[in-house]
Design a protein that fits this description.
This protein is mainly β. It is built from one helix and 14 strands; from the N terminus they run H-E-E-E-E-E-E-E-E-E-E-E-E-E-E.
């Protein structure tokens, strides 16, 4: 009697779990695998803003026929302090190496750093999350671009880590799992200057080049040519 009850309990357990197993297979949960790579290149720029003011003295003449007057024009340019930006950008290449489409594909690209002999750690607020609009079919490859702005840390070494996850990876069904390729990168040794030099053209036909704040002057003569009738 005890053996019969034990066998009955085992049978009931099998029956209870069978629909779940069948649903997993029927819903495409047999699992797939991914392969991925990431590239990284860093940029450092300082962008300058400029103000340009043109003035003239005197700005009004009252001339009689045959008279002339000379005015002095001043062009004054002021260079701003500059806005500094540092960022890393690149592409994440993902391939579905399995026989079923991916599920809940997500890519999180993060900047990591270390100083001295320490371990790599996440750089705060330096990450980008990519949620693709479409899943990858069997054998399909797709490229995803990223761009992450960050504040450098003195003496740090950097790399990018791209965590690519799906929820139907073989052997890990129902959990976020998959590869995390990495790519080292270095900051430029000096910044690229944006608008570090400007060319100013005047309506009177003059032109100048400025790399710093400054001013130039020129004179212009006005005449009243109409001498009237005698």
């Amino acid at each position: 009697m005890k053996r019969t009850l034990a066998a009955l309990l085992i049978l009931l357990m099998i029956i209870a779990t069978t629909p779940t197993i069948l649903r997993a297979i029927g819903d495409g949960q047999a699992g797939t695998t991914l392969s991925a790579s990431v590239t990284a290149k860093a940029y450092w720029t300082i962008t300058y803003g400029w103000t340009i003011v043109k003035s003239v003295t005197p700005d009004t003449w009252h001339l009689f026929p045959g008279d002339s007057g000379k005015s002095q024009y001043t062009i004054t340019v002021t260079k701003g302090e500059g806005t500094e930006q540092t960022w890393v950008e690149g592409i994440v290449t993902v391939t579905n190496s399995g026989d079923v489409a991916t599920e809940n594909l997500k890519i999180v690209v993060q900047v990591e750093y270390k100083t001295g002999g320490g371990q790599f750690q996440l750089l705060p607020k330096a990450y980008q999350t990519i949620i693709p609009g479409q899943q990858l079919g069997p054998g399909e490859t797709c490229i995803y671009e990223y761009c992450i702005e960050f504040t450098p840390i003195t003496g740090a070494v950097y790399r990018v880590a791209a965590k690519i996850t799906i929820t139907n990876h073989s052997g890990h069904l129902g959990e976020e799992f998959d590869p995390e390729p990495k790519s080292d990168f270095e900051l430029p040794t000096e910044p690229t200057l944006v608008n570090g030099v400007i060319h100013v053209s005047d309506t009177d036909g003059y032109s100048w080049v400025f790399s710093e704040s400054g001013s130039v002057t020129y004179e212009k003569t006005f005449t009243c040519d109409n001498k009237g009738k005698t």
